[in-house]
Design a protein that fits this description.
The complex is a heterodimer of chains A (170) and B (419). With 170 residues, chain A is of the alpha+beta class. Chain A has helices spanning 15-34, 56-60, 74-87; strands spanning 45-55, 69-71, 93-108, 111-124, 129-144, 147-157, 161-162. Chain A has a six-stranded mixed sheet. By secondary structure, chain B is an alpha+beta fold. In chain B, the strands form four sheets. Chain B has a seven-stranded antiparallel sheet. A seven-stranded antiparallel sheet of chain B has the order 11-17-16-15-14-13-12, with helices on both faces. Chain B starts with 27 loop residues before the first strand and ends in a 6-residue tail after the last helix. At the A-B interface, strand 2, helix 3 and strand 7 of A face strand 11, strand 17, helix 7 and helix 8 of B. Strand 7 of chain A pairs parallel with strand 11 of chain B, so a sheet runs across the interface. The complex binds FE2/S2 (inorganic) cluster and fe (ii) ion. The site of FE2/S2 (inorganic) cluster has 9 residues of chain B, from loops.
Chain lengths: 170, 419
């Protein structure tokens, strides 16, 4: 449950509004990856934002390494986009994200801990389909001046045996 | 993902022994070997269960008595178990009774293998300790008088180690591990293992290609600068003072050394050159010298074991064939136990280069999928870059000799007659 506390950071006090902003951010995240607007993906993060993809296997084994992606700044995310757009060789493919079971947890001043389930399905360049990954997002979302952004997004890949290369963020 | 090229069940109209191998110098490869089911089954018997050694675990994965870890050698499920008598054992994860798996987890501790099916109980060496209802019930049924538990243990493998790296083989006739690997590779593994290793994480991935395409790729020095332009275009290519290729039997070791900087502790050990693009966050290129000027060790051990120590991105991989057109890759990422936080962070950032989403490795997976997909029976593969020889090179990467070395070893283990 979100508690409505007034604060000096310009974070809205209205629970319904907070919920809407958080849902919008998750929708925007899915949209930019699903509609080939990769450039928008880093912009959903604060400058010092972190983006990690870690397998459920490593989380259960207590390992802080072997990340599929380990990006500790918005700059590193922009570099990923530059590389995917101009440098890397890979086959064209399409993602669809299904995100649900969104739970808004603890509030920390202007930040909210949010977890949700995801399913990413991939269609390849010949139109064939595969379930690429299922798992959980653990997000820390900052709402400042009415604008939600990720401070941190940890993607926990339940499907820790990747069925093929992971090209776009999950 | 049904694809006839990936899961060929077509029975070849002749035995693989009758493939006419097109050349004796391994410059032409008949591509049927990448798609044929019969060849795949013969490989399991002659190569994976034959006189070859397989990287099975790092000691740090099973450091304590009771620790076990599950993997595969070829298609056979295998467990590495640090038994309570402190011995390191490898056994087939298949009950000696009627064949259920005895270990159903990836890893754990203190677990005696107990078969869930009829409750046969083993110890960490694979010895059968007890069977359910050995005497039957109320003197009815049970095992006959001559029944001996000693004759019904789990199938065990031979285990030997270099440094902290544990290898296993099914074949009691296989040469000792050190002879199999050769001194140059043994030395390099020992160099990497000069301080106690720490496991930092695991990764698993399916690559939709034949295992041999994957092995050829990881030792292929030709494709690197052509396919993987990430470091070059971002201007973070490693200047090399010296490169070398060492071939021992069917194994290959690729190495590269930085120009000596004079400063052993230089944290920014990797000089940056100008590229077409500029990294917004260059910290991915930040590194440290863990092994002096040695910056690259790729050790491709026949048939399916691999070390890739690229800058500070260190992992070993087990290459596990699952069908003619699919291969599983199991990564174990490691560093040293006594590393600083800075060094650990460097390793984590540089792990972005490999793995399922890695800047470099994703390109290999994509290209290999495209290669597998394009194969038809009767095709041949042409491997003549750098000539026809299979020799080591102390000063260049401009040859496919390592790939030819793989095929020479392959033909020997598969007993394929050459023209
Ligand atoms: S199959 Fe294992 S006890 Fe019967
Ligand atoms: Fe490669």
């Amino acid at each position: 449950m979100v508690q409505a506390i007034s604060n000096p950071m310009g974070t809205p006090d209205n629970n319904a509004l907070i919920e809407r902003l958080i849902y919008t951010l998750l929708d925007d995240y899915a949209d930019c990856l699903d509609s080939d607007e990769l450039e928008k993906w880093p912009e959903l993060f604060v400058e010092t934002g972190k983006y990690f993809i870690q397998s459920r296997e490593n989380i259960e084994a207590g390992k802080d390494g072997g990340y599929w992606m380990y990006y500790t700044s918005q700059g590193m995310m922009r570099d990923r986009v530059t590389s995917l757009r101009h440098i890397n060789t890979y086959n064209k493919h399409y993602y669809r994200h299904l995100i649900n079971n969104i739970k808004i947890g603890e509030r920390d001043n202007d930040s909210f801990h949010v977890r949700s389930n995801f399913l990413v399905v991939q269609t390849d360049f010949e139109g064939k389909f595969e379930c690429l990954n299922a798992g959980e997002y653990r997000d820390v979302i900052l709402i400042h001046d009415g604008k939600p952004r990720f401070k941190e997004k940890l993607v926990i890949a339940d499907t820790f045996h990747a069925p093929s290369a992971i090209v776009y963020p999950l | 993902m049904e694809d006839y090229k990936r899961n060929s069940h077509t029975v070849w109209d002749c035995e693989y022994r009758h493939i006419s191998w097109p050349s004796s110098d391994h410059t032409l490869i008949p591509c049927d070997v990448y798609i044929d089911r019969q060849v795949f089954e013969q490989e399991q018997e002659l190569i994976f269960r034959g006189p070859t050694w397989h990287l099975s675990a790092l000691f740090a994965e099973i450091a304590n008595p009771g620790d076990f870890t599950s993997t595969y050698i070829g298609t056979t499920p295998v467990v590495l178990h640090h038994a309570h008598d402190d011995s390191i054992n490898a056994y087939v994860n298949r009950c000696a009774h009627r064949g259920s798996r005895v270990i159903g987890e990836l890893r754990g501790n203190n677990k005696f293998p107990i078969c869930p099916y009829h409750n046969w109980r083993y110890d960490g060496t694979g010895k059968l300790l007890g069977v359910a209802m050995e005497q039957g019930m109320q003197s009815k049924g049970g095992y006959p008088d001559g029944f001996s538990k000693d004759c019904h243990g789990l199938k065990t493998l031979r285990v030997e180690a270099v440094g902290d790296v544990i290898f296993a083989t099914f074949d009691s006739q296989a040469p000792p591990l050190h002879d199999y690997l050769g001194t140059v590779i043994v030395d390099r593994i020992e160099t990497i293992c000069q301080r106690p290793l720490q496991i930092v994480g695991y990764q698993r991935q399916t690559v939709p290609c034949n295992w041999k395409l994957f092995v050829e790729n990881n030792r292929d020095t030709y494709h690197g600068p052509q396919l993987h332009t990430f470091v070059g275009q971002f201007g973070i290519a490693m200047p090399a003072d010296r490169v070398s290729v060492d071939i021992h039997d069917a194994h290959a070791l690729l190495s590269s050394w930085l120009p000596p900087s004079g400063d052993k502790d230089d944290k920014n050990a990797y000089p940056v050159q100008k590229g077409k693009y500029e990294l917004e966050d260059p910290s991915i290129a930040q590194g440290f010298k863990a092994l002096g000027d040695l910056q690259l060790s790729v050790i491709s051990i026949y048939p399916g074991s691999l070390f890739t120590c690229i800058r500070n991105s260190w992992s070993c991989r087990r290459i596990i064939p699952t069908s003619p057109g699919t291969t599983d890759i199991e990564y174990t990422w490691f560093g040293y136990e006594d590393e600083s936080d800075f060094e650990r962070e460097c390793r984590k950032k540089q792990s972005n280069l490999l793995g399922p989403a890695g800047y470099i490795a994703l390109e290999d997976a994509e290209v290999l999928a495209m290669t597998q997909n394009a194969i038809s029976r009767g095709d041949t593969s042409y491997i003549e870059f750098g000539g026809t020889g299979i020799e080591s090179a102390s000063d260049h990467f401009n040859s496919e000799a390592t790939v030819r070395a793989f095929w020479k070893g392959y033909c020997e283990t598969m007993q394929i007659p050459l023209p």
